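Changelog-linked ticket: nicotinamide-adenine-dinucleotide example.
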Amino acid sequence: MIKIFPQDRVFILTGAGLSAESGIPTFRGSGGLWRNYRMEEVASPEAWQRDPRLVWEFYSLRRRVARAAKPNPGHFALAELERALGDRLFVVTQNVDDLDEQAGSRRVIHMHGELWKSRCDRCDRAPFDDAEVYEPFREIPRCPCGGQIRPYVCWFGELPYHLDRIQAALDACTIFVAVGTSGVVEPAASFVAHARSHAQSFYVGPEAPVNQDAFTKCFLGNSGELLPKLFFLQ
Ligand code: NAD
């Protein structure tokens, strides 16, 4: 149980594990769905330069998988916490799906981008809504500027989005909670090291993350089962 007092500010970092019970597999240890793809061949600027069709094939698959998914009790628990805490809660997700929003959350920060948006790979036109699946052998769509349309997703070697806001929220938090993230992907894996100098830090997931020593306590179990009964407002 995590007690939240009126003066507390809560920072929650979520990863692929939060959406696992919704049927969107994590990358690590899941085998199965993503097995045919090596991440560096489909999720890096070099991959985009080399073979944009393969990249769109991968993201088209991810869109099809995400389209079939529905939020699970973990997403609903975070949406309820947002309603209770307002701006005393800051949720940042590494997930690109929109299951938090489907569950009713309105303020989640997507540090690795959003699956349902695309952007130009050349100009600074704002990311736009895009639910298309670009299967193999279709033309890569083009921006009016001549650039190619790519997924609005932060790839390996690219800088995540909203880092200034994330840093400010990390500085201000008194409670830090990581959910369903293996503690491998940077910079998110280092957030806990920053927060623990001034905040209690908790982990929620079925197995301890690689950076478990940085946490005050790990709650071992599925987030869909644990999150709905984890937080107690004092
Ligand atoms: P990750 O590094 O966040 O690892 C997944 C973690 O989820 C593991 O530690 C695992 O123990 C945990 N987990 C599995 N089932 C869980 C459950 N029911 N409840 C709570 N935790 C559970 O993620 P990754 O898969 O290694 O992917 C790396 C990058 O790809 C990250 O940015 C990740 O968020 C992203 N990704 C996003 C999605 C999505 O948008 N839904 C899906 C796959 C990967």
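Closing comment: Example verified and attached. The longest strand covers residues 113-120. The chain has a mean pLDDT of 94.
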